[in-house]
Amino acid sequence: MAPLETSSDTSTSTLPNNLVTVEPSNPLYLYPTDNSGTIIVADRFNGMGYGSWRRGMLIGLSCKNKLGIINGTISKSNVTSPFYEPWCRCNDMVIASILNSLETEIRESVMYTESATKLWKDIEKRYGQPNGSKMYQICKALSSISQGASNIASYFFRIKKLWDELAYSITYPDCVCGCKEAFQKLEEDQKLH
């Protein structure tokens, strides 16, 4: 058996016949615990609470060193590249993880998307856009929330979740004049009322 040749990239080794061994530090590496049944977030996305689902997915994919697969920074390798097969396996694993985190109706509508990047962008386009009716529902829930029989911690967490969802729904344009900070301060002040 020929010895492993270390490529200029220290995170891979080239085997005979153009096969590649991907090292654990490489984003294309799949751990033995990674499998097509992997669930990254506890609750499946059903069309509601996109912001918290998205945040959970981003944290989970970041922990697995796979954010580059969905944001496009790790692009598909050429078919002749030794990294083509590892990229395909990694892409399929990320697709499976995303599909496993979706309710059946949503999952079936995106099942045949072939790239994790396209799948992520499709879900983002459908559910990640600011939505006036969604913002109205959140504001309505905030105005009618009461502690009831809940303990103070539970009550606080329910309010915080709604405020976080509302904050995610509001997008401010980037600016250099300082008005963005003024709007964010106004938003924080409204939480006191």
Name a few traits of the molecule.
single chain; 193 residues; mainly alpha; 2 domains; elongated; disordered N terminus; Copia-like_N
The side-by-side strand order for the widest beta sheet comes to: 1-2-3
H and E string: EEEHHHHHHHH
Low-confidence stretches: 1-10
Helical segment count = 8
Q: What fraction strand? A: under 5%
Instruction: Using the alpha-carbon principal axes, give the shape.
Output: elongated
Alpha carbon gyration radius? 22 Å
**Overall average pLDDT:** 82
Residues in helices, as a percent range: 40-55%
- Tally of separate domains: 2
The chain-level structural class is mainly alpha
Major beta sheet, specifics?
Answer: 3 strands, antiparallel
End-to-end Cα distance: 73 Å
Tally the beta strands. 3
Would you mind describing this structure in some detail?
By secondary structure, the protein is mainly alpha-helical. It folds into two domains: 50-128, no CATH class; 132-191. The protein has eight helices and three strands. The protein has helices at 50-63, 67-71, 84-100, 104-110, 116-127, 132-144, 152-169, 179-190, and strands at 5-6, 12-14, 20-22. The chain has a three-stranded antiparallel sheet with strand order 1-2-3, with no helix packed on it. Helix 6 runs antiparallel to helix 7. It is elongated, with a radius of gyration of 22 Å. The chain starts with a strand and ends with a helix. Residues 1-10 have low confidence and may be disordered. InterPro entries: Copia-like_N.
